[in-house]
Specification:
Layout lengths: L4 E5 L3 H10 L6 E5 L2 H10 L4 E4 L8 H10 L8 E5 L4 H10 L3 E4 L3 H20 L2 E5 L3 H12 L4 E5 L2 H8 L6 E5 L7 H9 L9 E5 L4 H9 L4 E4 L4 H46 L7 H15 L4 H13 L9 H4 L7 H7 L2 H9 L9 H6 L20 H16 L10 H10 L7 H12 L19
Parallel strand pairs: 1-2, 1-3, 3-4, 4-5, 6-7, 6-8, 8-9, 9-10
Length: 467
């Protein structure tokens, strides 16, 4: 909870200090005010993640302060915890009507304050990360719905019809869509179908708001992919509760899917690690080659400004770039003499074999072009497809440089590995014909850096089982 700013509003200094003491373990920053008006002024001129307030105070009560805060677009998203000695159902109801997020009696402060604050801040942080797209041709509905949901801390974007909403989706990715049905230009039916037909947005929760309460109308929208249907006019509290639940359920579902995918991915990588180990165990001369190529390629990708996810993909791709050699006979793969034309034709199949091995694994789709194309050449004389120049995927071009360098400097059955300076000269010589000039320049920059030293002990580079 470190880093949260909390405003404590109470006319009793002793009560304020008691609350501050209970909050000490959160390592939060606290500010104090002795009445609602002072609290309101502070909230409008500084940032607070939570306001804890008494109800009955001089100058301005906690209820009036709460109403003012919720009416102001700049402060309506701040959660408010009311603490009062007045704990009747009537007072609690008034607190929630004024916009309070939670209500505690002063007798509950010692036992429930910490849990309440933690829960409120967690939910507030969650809500602040969520975007809701409100689509309705009525400016009144857009304003009312947007105002109510922004009080809960949600970021609100609006659109006047389905077409406008699709345009907004190009720049604003929401976590939930609230849409009317009867709109000009593009109605809710057409908009929902367009959303469901786009793989980027088809998993988003879609809630319909409509004056049409016909059962057939509702079923039609639900069949098109909507998850819920609200009949106008609806209660704003009902809307808020529905949105909270749908986003929470969606978040839990995504979290479970992520955990499931992570588990599958770990199992898949463990299996592939075994395949790579089996491949390299066939030939002591190439043991560690995949790990070395992966380390160099990832270093180049990082230097090129790739995202962490892209660097990880290149790292995995580097480890797997030669996986197709599993399908090549030992008599060819380990032959100490020059290969015949027929034997080399067999070797040239390994990129396609590797791509076919990996193709059933959906999570590895991004690295298949790297595996398939790392032996393509800039002049179009490479294999398996004779691609030229920019037709070759960037990560494959980067891996080709790393693969070439490590192959030149490693011992093989038919020759001894050459010195680094000699290998660099060869790489310069094939710059633009075999290897991508930009990737060669990137490699030369990378290898000159001091931190490249860690990659020169090739067998000590990043271990495959670590990701």
């Amino acid at each position: 909870m470190a880093g949260h700013d909390i405003l404590i509003v109470d006319d009793s200094r002793m009560v304020r200090n008691v609350i501050k003491g209970y909050l000490a373990e959160f390592d939060c920053n606290t500010t104090q005010a002795d009445n609602g008006l002072a609290g309101l002024d502070l909230a409008r001129n500084a940032h607070f993640d939570l306001i804890i307030t008494d109800v009955d105070m001089p100058v301005m009560s906690g209820l009036d302060m709460c109403r003012e805060l919720k009416a102001d677009p700049g402060t309506r998203g701040i959660p408010i915890l009311m603490i009062s000695s007045f704990d009747s159902e009537d007072y609690i109801h008034k607190g929630f009507q004024a916009g309070a997020t939670a209500y505690l009696s002063k007798d509950e402060v010692e036992t429930r304050l910490l849990a309440s604050v933690e829960s409120i801040l967690s939910k507030s942080d969650f809500n602040k990360s969520k975007r809701i797209l409100v689509v309705d041709d009525s400016s009144v509905i857009r304003h009312l719905v947007g105002t109510e949901l922004s009080k809960e801390g949600y970021y609100i974007a609006t659109a006047v019809n389905g077409r406008d909403a699709l345009d907004k989706l190009a720049s604003v990715r929401p976590d939930l869509i609230l849409s009317d049905i009867d709109m000009p230009v593009m109605n809710g039916f057409e908009f929902c179908e367009a959303v469901q037909g786009d793989v980027r947005f088809s998993s988003l929760p879609f809630v319909v708001m409509s004056t049409n309460s016909d059962r057939g109308h509702m079923q039609r929208m639900l069949r098109r992919g909507a998850q819920a249907y609200l009949v106008k006019p609806f209660n704003m509290d009902q809307l808020t509760i529905l949105v909270d639940k749908m986003l929470s359920d969606h978040f839990v579902m995504l979290l479970k899917d992520r955990e499931h995918l992570d588990s599958e991915r770990r199992m898949m990588l463990s299996t592939i690690t075994s395949l790579v180990n089996a491949l390299e165990a066939r030939d002591n001369y190439t043991k560690g080659h995949s790990t070395a190529v992966a380390g160099i390629s990832a270093g180049l990708a990082r230097l090129a400004g790739a995202s962490p996810e892209e660097v990880q993909s290149v790292l995995i791709g580097g480890h797997l770039h030669d996986i197709g050699k599993i399908g090549i006979s030992d008599t060819i793969l380990l032959k100490p003499d020059r290969l015949t034309g027929k034997e080399f034709s067999c070797i040239k199949k390994h990129p396609d074999i590797g791509a076919n091995i990996l193709s059933p694994v959906e999570s590895l789709a991004a690295i298949i072009p790297l595996v398939r194309c790392h032996h393509e050449r800039m002049d179009g004389k490479g294999y398996p497809n004779g691609l030229k120049g920019s037709q070759i995927p960037l990560w494959a071009r980067i891996t080709a440089v790393a693969d070439t360098f490590h192959a030149l400097t490693s011992n093989r059955p038919y020759r001894t590995g050459m010195k680094t300076e000699n290998a660099l000269q060869i790489i310069e010589d094939v710059r633009g014909t075999q290897l991508c000039p930009d990737c060669v320049d990137l490699f030369l920059t990378w290898i000159e850096q001091e931190d490249a030293e860690e990659f020169r002990e090739w067998e000590q580079t990043l271990a495959f089982v670590d990701f």
